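User: I'll paste a sequence; please echo it back and then give the predicted structure.

Assistant: Echoing your sequence first, then the prediction.
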Amino acid sequence: MGRAGKREIDQVARYVRWLDKRIGTDSTKVSFVLFANSQSLRDWNMVPEYGKRIKPVSFGVEQSLAVS
């Protein structure tokens, strides 16, 4: 598992859009998490409409996978 760049962030945003269309307002009850060694903040800012619904979680050798 490597770095989450524009392609990976866009894929999660496409899934959020798809879920919105499929189940409507119930989709706001779903939490989205993107696990990667690191995320590009520049790329992350390209999806502002979904940025608050998707939680980026970075991890590495010295970091745990605990999600709060």
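The longest helix spans residues 6-23. The beta strands are 3-4, 32-36, 38-39, 54-58.
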